[in-house]
## 1
Amino acid sequence: MGVGKAMFLSEGTAESGAKVKFEPVQTNSIRQEYVCDKNEVAAAARRVIEMEEKGKREEAVNNILQTVRPKLDKYKFGDIIGMQQFRASKLDTTDIDDVNILLFGPTGAGKTCLVSMTETMFGLERMSAPQAGGGEGTIHLEPFLEKHTGGFKLLDSRGFFTLDEDFMSELNDILKGQTQALDLIKRKYDDIDSRAVSNTNEEILANRIHGLICVLDYNDPRFGKYKDKMNQYRRLFKKEGYSPVTVVSYKTEEAIPETVRQTKQEEAAFALGAAIDRTFIIRNAVAQSGGMDNNEQAILLQILETALLGAEQFIKIRKLDEKWKKVDEKRQTGGGVAEFIISLQKKYKWEQKDVDDLSKLFEDEDIGTTAALKENWEYLKGKIPKWGIVDIISSELH
């Protein structure tokens, strides 16, 4: 017959090795007694707790797969923090087509493998080609995923051997968009013929790197030294406004003990100046057979979502900086053109339609200050139909 419920009953003082009576209550009147070792009872209790924790983990994993994956699969700029944050601050983001996420780290750490795992997770044809045998693989700034999502791309960079000044300069050029997608990341010891790099000194926000993922190898013998060697990089990321994501990649099929995992996670977070909740450990599924399980897909989705969160916040901060810089420029050049037109309207009794037409013209031509108006006046006055207004503005400007 079925069992209604179970109780643990102890007999007297339970010394080490003492017996504990486990007495299930049957739905019929038959009573059965089982005598088991106290350690067995404790083990059974631990198994129950582990099963409950496993159930919670599986629920969390399923939630990520069901919510985060569809969002990233159809990602558009602003989906993470919300476009209302940009609209509320009146920030123009029409120039941002793709969010650029840079993967960087030591040679052989697993950067390209992380790209391959992402392509596989989204069901894409694998365009990335992870290196084999420990040699150097990627030497160009390779873009991936841009045609799939239409909202972000991963840029796989050349791995570093040493954290010297040359690599700092190389990384800085990539961050600022002076080295762009498909450019050769050329080093002084290279003997390679390739097309010239973009080599532009103009900083355009859309061309910049917006988010960072640093990939480190779990078994890298230099791992513990990165916290000292990467001081200047932490300062650079902080100065530029980046919130890097750190990924520790391992190749073994065996699970990593939790205490070891925590230590490695803390070391990696400190090395990059990343928060612990922006630091992840993931198995390199490309290097092992069997592909990714649900848990590994969930971790990869969290990595991408966290990187995109930092990227959107980076763009917002940069846009705010641009906005306030323009305000400062107006103050330094004697005010804005809108205030100038309004003052002329009051002085010369212009009709509102004439003022609206002027405002639209100057807005279309991106004339925001009286200094810019004066500089471009010879060109602009030919676009104003009323010569009386042209004569007045000419007189007031000079």
## 2
Amino acid sequence: MAIFDCILFDLDDTLYSSDVGIAGFLRKNIEEFLMMTCGITAEDAFALRSELFKTYGSSLVGLRARGYNIHPDDYHSFVHGRLPYDLIRPNPSLRDLLQSIPQRRIIFTNSDMVHATRSLERLGLTGCFDGIICFETLNPDLFGSKIVLKPSVTAFNTALSISGVNPRRVLFLDDSEKNIASAKAIGLRTALVGRRRRKIAEADYLVEEICELSRVIPEIWSSAMAHEEVTSEVNSRFSLRREVHELSA
């Protein structure tokens, strides 16, 4: 019997590598938004973005906390709407891997639905997930007094409530150490994703690349007695897909 009933996947820098470079463009767009909104220089915008992230976990949350009457849709359309999505390439190997997972698969991201949908389309992963928990899901009242996002425990509890699952039978994958720590604190099994990540106490697994999931966490597919056969099958499919993908690149 599988030990997980549901797998929650972060999106950005988890389902595609941070090497793609989307995060760098996102930071640039946020800084331009801060320059426009706050009337500050590029140098000050760089410092403010870092300060808001460290203090509030998000520039949008920080701006709202400091009294700026910003609608989330305006913010997201500026910082996400101008991203070079063409940098995100289709990943048929990952699609095969995800479709082989027997448990429910749910995206859990702080990003807005438009960005999540567009990113999944670029990756070729449309239809691979049973649901998307995103900014709008966590914040149905867009002008609510408080914005809820990972790594807050409230965000995780909301995601679990929506998913209707026992936290101790959920696997959560994310590239953020803070998010992993929050997930572990409420009982989830956790996998930290990223090539340059170091193993932390709150992470049950360390996954350098998402396509290594079958090697690092074979128990997703089967009980301990059968996992070697399943892992071999999944890895064979992945290797074949990768060879074809590399030849056609």
## 3
Amino acid sequence: MKMFLTFASVLLAAVMVQANCPGDMEVVNGKCYLFGMASSKADAQKQCTDIDPENHLWIVNDITEMENVMAHFSKKLVSPWAWTDGIRSDTIEEGHNIWAWATSGNRMSYYPDHPSQECAGTCVTEDCGNNEVGDCATMSMSGTGERSYQACACDTAGLQFICESPDEVSWTCPEDNGFFASGPCSDLWYNCFNGHATPEYCGDGLVFNESAGYCDYPENVDGC
């Protein structure tokens, strides 16, 4: 009986430490993402940051992230385009503007469906279907399922968007490594590694118990 109770306690703690995304965001491979419809890229960005000011539109880092996110939201796709964080920069090389991620300033280098090809900021197609071509990058999917970046006018209406939570926030870790509450009786906590803070969220009705190192019921946390 004692062994069963110990196992149950460990299982409960493991379940409680799972992060819960803010607003309507959903967990995909350990990060929070939001899928929605917008009247423009600015509207998409606003919907994204209204949930958390540090959120940003999707930055596609690699094939694993792209496959996981696209597979998760595939049943919700009603148009072939979704806004990303990509923009046309002022940098010109060989007569072409370089495309970059607006949040980080890094070049858009991962080429959808061509993982072995490094495009170094030149992998956005000057096309947006029947819509006006412009300075904002969308993730597009053809009728055969092939993904690509396409350049759409930033005020194009009726396109979807993908928003994601930040990988790191400007929060000062009390120690370089550990789990820390954001404040008293809060469901937001930070996973600190080498001084870098990643935001996490407790499940509904739970707050972070810093002394225990996991999400807990408020009555088990001092001061709640």
## 4
Amino acid sequence: MIHFTPKFYLIGRVTHTGTQRDGTPFSQVWKTIDSLGSGTYGDVVLQELQGSPGGGCLHAVKSITKKAHKNNKKILTNELKALIAVKKHPTKVVTFHGWYQDSQQTMFIAMEYVSGGSLERYMRKLKRVENILISSTSPLLVKICDFGIAKSADIDASGLKT
């Protein structure tokens, strides 16, 4: 897991500094280019990596304020643990890229951007399908993107249990 440290904030732009797994420091500038939606605990925006290497790379970034989850750190910890635990299923669950927190105590979770959108656009009668994203339409591949802040998840050596 990568823990990003935001260096400074401008409207719609953030610079992350951090350390890669091999200990190499890095700095990245991400620009918010679109709003993807909102839910119970926060909003999701589309961010694009600026410059090179990797310029043009897209992430979906979920923001979760402490106020939204009543300052319960366990809720956020469970969300991160769930994302890490299911990382071994990249064809079924969005890829978790890392997280960071700003000075206003808002947590940001960076995940894979799935361009097909949610099934909600295609199947209006199903409930809570906005958390199932379409990775490909031919063949049809879907990925799960939200674990409801994983409020009922327990993680152990065997994997995720609810």
